[in-house]
Amino acid sequence: MNVAGGVLPVAAGIALVVFAVRLAREPRRLGNAVWLGVALLLTALWLLRAALHLEWLTPLLLGVLAVLAVLVALGLPVALVVNGVRMWRREGRSAGNLLSLGLGAGLVGLEALFFVPLGRWGSALVAIAAVLACYFGFLFLSLLIYSVVYGRLGRRSGFDAIIVLGCGLAGERVPPLLAGRLDRAIRLAGREAAPPLLVVSGGRGPGETVSEAEAMDAYLRDRGVPPDRIRREDQAATTEENLRFSAALLPADARRVVAVTSNYHVFRTAVECRRLGLPFHATGSPTARYFLPSALLREFAALILYYRRTTIAACVVIIGTGLALTIFA
Q: Which residues pair with 284 in a beta bridge?
């Protein structure tokens, strides 16, 4: 085995150990997702390199890689555009709902530029944009995988209190997305011998006739939750406020607390808890599939903004390296 063949498994092993140590210490850290992504990428490169040395497997492997490349290059942008149009029709024309449409159109435009003669600098700028797209794609995939991992960690019972995060009403009616969160909280509470306190959190937004907390309170009481087990937090307008304001309503002896949200929002909620110094974890309820792409992109954008200095530094390095190579090539 040559040097390159020996370095990859060692590097993958080191990344995996770092990930495991960080996970054991604090599972609510964004960096955990990056280390997991690095470990998986290095492992994949190692396995790919080893497979290419098997002559009987090489043609099949190259065929599979070619199909995957076509699916990513063509299928992904088209799927994002289709999903964006569906979100537009079902959920409205807000900026958040159009994220998948915008990203899909952007990828189509970027790929089209590879077939246009742009000259030396134009081609260099397209190449830099492609590297940036790969960088953010790696981060997104790492966060997606780690979000699944995080969602399966932690306790499933033994809670002193459950915080349910609001997510908008239809007038005064609890919509399916919010109902899923409340139903999840009811199931969690039903597992406890001593019923936990339920804190419903959410203020009154545009187009809503009552606060989210009031509508959530009514939903829980209609399903048999005793009023004395419910507390309302009706001022919050963001995830941070949901958590901070709800924490202030908890009794002093509530030590084991979980925040219930939708599955796409779980990891960002956990990261927010850590940023606020709250010893809470998060769990999620199912979400309609068509809603997930745009929702996950919103979560990704929010997490990137949390760590914008690191993101800007990485972009500066990528752009600077690309420009330097173009100048001195």
A: 261
